[in-house]
Fold this sequence. Notes:
- The structure holds 2 protein chains of 2 kinds.
- Chain A is 0% helix and 44% strand.
- Chain A has strands at 9-13, 18-23, 32-38, 45-50, 55-56, 61-64, 70-75, 84-91, 108-113.
- By secondary structure, chain B is mainly beta.
- Chain B is built from no helices and 11 strands.
- In chain B, the strands form 2 sheets. In chain B, strands 2, 4, 5, 6, 9, 10 and 11 form a 7-stranded mixed β-sheet that branches.
- The termini of chain B are far apart.
- At the A-B interface, strand 3 and strand 4 of A face strand 4, strand 5, strand 9 and strand 10 of B.
Amino acid sequence: DAKTTQPTSMDCAEGRAANLPCNHSTISGNEYVYWYRQIHSQGPQYIIHGLKNNETNEMASLIITEDRKSSTLILPHATLRDTAVYYCIVRVPLIYNQGGKLIFGQGTELSVKP
Amino acid sequence: KAGVTQTPRYLIKTRGQQVTLSCSPISGHRSVSWYQQTPGQGLQFLFEYFSETQRNKGNFPGRFSGRQFSNSRSEMNVSTLELGDSALYLCASSPQPGGQDTQYFGPGTRLTVL
């Protein structure tokens, strides 16, 4: 089962920051948080990942709380093309028997509106 | 670099038939994972191959099988197709298996079973 909880849907105005929350209260110390998004029936697109420090790349920023029980994905200036389902995933480390695979939850459907 | 490619993109089969789907990973990537996406169950992990060996397997019946070739290309096979096998089948590649190597997805193969 997925180890994350996300809101089912969110709206965001075009040009504004989109802040997508994710709860992962049972995360272990060596488990990474990954974010992907999927635009209607395309393959999921990797966005960003992190362990304990905040991360930023050209697409987004990832803020992980100090206790690592939750995180927020930030799209700084949302555009209509950011409308997609966003998945927050806690990835089991390779050292465990089923490690490495991605376990997807239901994700958050983000709608960016003009 | 070219991304993950999957062939064919669309496929229509009838119940009882079998099907083979193909995935070519990103150049230099040696790990290939397969996922099934349906409206009811979402994205579910099927199996992962690394160095021509199945390293990880999800909770799917034995009708679902796969293999990997020496050039890291992978195929998955579904025998005795059922209506419920209609889904988007996604392939993802990464340099190595494991929690720190990002998986990059292909566009998927849309299988329809009639």
